[in-house]
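Notes from hallway chat w/ T.B., transcribed later so I don't forget. T.B. wanted the structure written out for a chain they're using in a teaching module, and asked if we could keep both sequence and structure tokens in one place. Agreed to drop them here.
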Amino acid sequence: IVDSHVHIPWYAFSLPPYKIDITYPAVKSIADIREAIRAAAAKAKPGEWIMGDGWNQAAIQEIIDDPTRRMCKEDFDEASPNNPVYLLEFSHHNAVVNSAALRAAGINGKTPDPVGGSYPKGADGEPTGYIVERGIIEFEKVMPTYTREQTKEAFLNCAKTLATLGITSVN
């Protein structure tokens, strides 16, 4: 099988141990995501970023029940008060973060929306933690980078994972 659209660097670093698995069916609710964050926070040093990739609002029970519902910082603050949390949506167009990540990126109620993105605000005028489109860039600037050895390991793991799915070539 040839995959003509996979983004190898994104996919390689979307897999554990680099990011927590928040894809369906690993998680089916905000509560499931919260527990995955809590488990990662228990193993992390204070200040270490907890990152996840792959949530899909069409597969999150609370959002299915209320289509106007969006995940927000309050959903994850208690599970990880000492670690920034950054959860990238499956399309890589949106993310949700906790309060520690907002502080790390310097995003607050006075921060203007970036061109091509937004930091939706709550009734209190503060960012909700739901990050739209190019708003994710400010978080990417402050997240840790991977070492050369981590990159090598991630790509080798990615190749093995793709092979187990029958994918032998990528474009």
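Follow-up for T.B.: The mean pLDDT is 95. Might be a good example for the class.
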